[in-house]
Amino acid sequence: MSHSLTPSPSSSSDLLVSHGHHFGQTVSALCNYPSLLTNGILRLEQLEDTPLEDLSTEERREHRVFEQLLDSYPDGSDEEIHHVGELIGKGAAGARGDDTKTLKSAILNWISPRGEAIQPPLHRNSKIDHGFNHELTVSLLCPAGLDWNDPLGEMLVCGDQWPIFLYANHIYDSEDPWCGLLRSHLLIYAYKHVFTSPSSVDRELKATLKVQFALSSSSVFSRTNTTTDSETFYHSFLDLLEDLEECKEVDELLTWWNWLIINIATYAANALSKIRQRRIALKQATNLDLVSS
Question: How far apart (Å, rounded) are the C-alpha atoms in residues 29 and 23?
Answer without folding.
Answer: 8
